[in-house]
Amino acid sequence: MPASPDPDDLAIELRPIGRVRSILTARAGAPRQPDEDAPPAELLIDPEFARAAADLQPGLRIVVLTWLDRTDRTVQAVHPRGAQDRPATGVFATRSPDRPNPIGLHEVTITAIAGATVTVDGLEALDGTPIVDIKPVLGARADR
Q1: CA neighbor of 121 nearest in space, from 23, 34, 5
Q2: CB distance 91 to 76 below 8 Å
Q3: How many Cα atoms within 13 Å fall on the side-chain side of residue 72?
Q4: What are the chain's domains?
Q5: How many CB atoms within 10 Å of residue 108?
């Protein structure tokens, strides 16, 4: 078996493709899941990536990957849903935004598109959050 590369030797470049525009401006009180009444939001795609978004259509389900830049990157365990009466759980088993590398995964539906602005249904990301990538939601494996 080949040796694994040393993580300190790996160069990773992460470049945002846009930003979130949302009424959510502070972590306090922001939903942690879209089913907690996350508001609609806009994905403001940088003009240099406009061609990459040209084939998106209203009604399409997408996964938006974000860099949750206002999280605490030192957290490794949390009390699920903030309930102090529950035992702490390692963050890799939770959806907590606080984690060593805070990549947000948000499954949403496109409701409108105007140029390089993509409006989506409930998105639990704060205003100004960097967008890392957008991927279409694929059907269940049995459907493919």
Answers
A1: 34
A2: yes
A3: 8
A4: 17-137 (2.40.30.70)
A5: 25
